[in-house]
Amino acid sequence: MKTRSPRALVTGLMWLQQQEGGGGLRHTCEESDGLGRYGWVMHDGESFGAQEIRDGAVELRTEFVKSPGGEHGGDWSWRVTARMENASAPPALLSLFFYAATDGQGTLEPRLENGSRLAAVRGTTEELGGFTLRFLRPTAPGSQDPKPASYNWLEAPSPGLHRLTELVRSSLTPSAVFSAPARPRRRFFAVSPSGGLPGAPPRGRVLLHQVTLEPPAAVEVMFESGSAAPAPVPLMGAALSAALARHEAAFRHRFEATFGLAGKGFTAPQQRFAQAALSEVLGGIGYFHGRSLVQAAPGERAVPGAEAALFTAVPSRSFFPRGFLWDEGFHQLLVARWDPALSLEVLAHWLDLMNAEGWIPREQILGEEARAKVPPEFVLQRGDTGNPPTLLLALERLLPAAPRPFLQRLFPRLCAWYAWFNRTQAGPEPLSFRWRGRDAEHERFLNPKTLASGLDDYPRASHPSPHERHLDLRCWMALGARVLAALAERLGQPVEPFGAAARALGDNELLERLHWAPELGAFADYGNHSAAVALRWQHPAPAAPGQAPRLVREVREAPRLRFVDALGYVSLFPVLLQLLRPDSPRLPAVLAAMRSERQLWSPFGLRSLARDSAFYLRPNTQHDPPYWRGSVWLNINFLALRALHGYAGTEGPQRERAARLYRELRHNLIANVYRQHAESGFLWEHYSDSSGRGQGCRPFAGWTALVVLVMAEDY
User: Fold this and answer.
1) In sequence order, what are the residues at sequence separation of 6 or more whose Cβ sits closer than 8 angstroms to the Cβ of residue 164?
2) 184 Cβ partners below 8 Å, 6+ apart?
3) Fewest CB within a 10 Å sphere: which of 171, 235, 531, 566?
């Protein structure tokens, strides 16, 4: 837990199963830990949460409650409960490590009991004033019966949050002995005095309380603000249990009132699954602070950007602990339904990242936690490269009820952002658009990536050129014009030129002229393209020691200006963003492609690229597996369901067909995501179109959690 500030006090938990030795220390979530499952099962985004973790035979449940009061945010209490998965199995010897660490400011003072147990920490910081952190003695779960435990503590210079695990691991020595009545003595690893990490300048202080015990057991921690009036009954023991029960009941009631899943006939396990999906998104919201590495224009020197702060949800706290512009709009569709004020706060943070040109960097790698998880090639943010303006999806939902003063402050930023797209991403023809920033080393890739679009390796024109017209970007610009026109009207501002742009970009005849490919019977990108490309092994000549063969692209037919023969998510964008009229003569072909098992339909959702495409499930380089080339992705399927729901509710010749597609697709999507979560314990980044199995990063509670809105039919 930390405050929303650049140099916050950080408190946290680590644990270690002692039979594993000193190498199994758990702290930050890492996919390589191989935990059976972990994640929030309830979280209200503000004052209450519960998460469950399975680490081998040990099950941990952490719960917290916040109590408002005073001038610094109030008090909070945590309970950590440890149990064995099999109650009849020999209990593990488990160490729980509770720490408090400062970062550049603030003080921490230990309060010892019997010389070896850190009973409390008293401290001060700028944001929290004075406070006391109390570590209570362990008890049996559900009672106040004491549990035997051994205690150790550590005080050391803090090397920063990103290196706390390393600090604690380096201080562990196998020198302590655990003894309990009627139990054999057991040696374990305990923290010992540390002078800090070599080569790591101290950033502050860290105090750590180690309690070693045999499950089942519960340990409580209390944070008491010096400016809050003392509670009549301390939030511990029975009082904490009662508070947790109240918050849990309130969460379940609010969830049903918001999403109505019980009323729609979903079972209790399905409702718990949906509650966990929402909670994972809310529990993953965090505060980041730092500087992006920015290149203002191609060829210019990379420099650190302005110091910035970002309060944002993240796709996956374990794998992607940073803000993604394209992901965040989808996150906020769900958050906005739960807590509109929280969502508006996140949107404001994102729009405050805009520079004077109206550009927002697509990835926000702010601070050491974020930077530690980013491959070097993705750190640099290029000033000519955009990302889909999905924040407008959330804003469109929030617009009717958002406070007028807030919207007035937002409006100039949104205008600048839209103008930046118009200025920098313009295409070769009027009202056409082209993503900048495609991969330049064409020979390395089967199809040069377009990271700016968010669809990464989705097949575009084989030879990037200024002649390209990108269908999805044109549709995003139409959405932008529509939302800005509605916002201007709400604020009493001149609706033009946004209204005129929305009408022009929504003109179905012009859309067809620029993007309908008669030879494909589908909407498509246009550019300098060859369909006859393949990856071939190239052997160095003459062979040099240590020089291995590599895969390079072979072009067997010269490219020419043409429509790109790739039927997939991009082809659907005129429907996804509901630009096609309900009576459009092109709508039947798009719906047919969606339902065709040879093309986009799978039992688990719409696949990202047609099965009969030459690029279907094809690796893009020697080391890059297919990504947006067949897998089922929840964000695009959500947009498809939203669009089908809209067409099904509007008069037109395809109304019944859209309704049938909607019902089938919704059922398939919910059934598979729920089944995979029940089997694996996780939400996944994307899903196999052939088996439905989760793929990519996990847990991925970002846009995959949109399944909650799908279940609620809340579009």
Assistant:
1) 12, 27, 99, 101, 158, 206
2) none
3) 531
Cα–Cα distance for residue pair 652/578, rounded to 1 Å: 14
DSSP state of 103: S
Amino acid identity, position 304: P
Q: What tokens appear for 661 in the block? A: 């597609």
Is 10-259 a domain of CATH 2.70.98.110?
Answer: yes
Active centre residues (catalytic): 456, 685
* Domain 276-285+317-712 CATH assignment equals 3.30.9.100: no
**DSSP secondary structure letters along 287-315:** EEEE--EEESSTTSPPEE---EEEEE--S
Domain limits, CATH 2.70.98.110, in the chain: 10-259
Q: CATH 1.50.10.10 in the chain: give the residue spans.
A: 276-285+317-712
d(CA 529, CA 192): 64
Query: What is the average pLDDT across 509-535?
Result: 96
Residue 201 confidence (pLDDT):
87
- How many CB atoms are located within 10 Å of the residue 144 CB? 11
What is the pLDDT, as a whole number, of residue 275? 98
Residue 345, Cβ density class (10 Å: 0-12 exposed, 13-18 middle, ≥19 buried): middle
Per-residue pLDDT, 23: 57
User: What is the average pLDDT value for the chain, to the nearest integer?
Assistant: 94
Q: What is the pLDDT of residues 12-52, one digit of tens each?
A: 999 999 975 545 899 988 878 888 899 999 999 999 999 99
Least confident of 2-11, 50-59, 546-555, 556-565: 546-555
- 3-class DSSP state for residue 17? strand
- Name the nearest CA neighbour of 617 among 472, 460, 459, 461: 459
Instruction: List, for residues 255-308, the tens digit of each pLDDT value.
Output: 999 999 999 999 999 999 999 999 999 999 999 999 999 998 888 899 999 999
The DSSP H or E segment spanning 595 is helix 587-595
Q: Residues 6 or more apart from 1 whose CB is under 8 A from it?
A: 10, 11, 12, 64, 76
Distance from C-alpha of 7 to C-alpha of 10, rounded to nearest angstrom:
9
Strand-pairing partners, residue 529, are: 560
CA distance 369 to 284: 14
pLDDT confidence tier of residue 563, bands split at 50, 70 and 90: very high
How big is the chain, counted in residues?
715
DSSP class of residue 403 equals: -
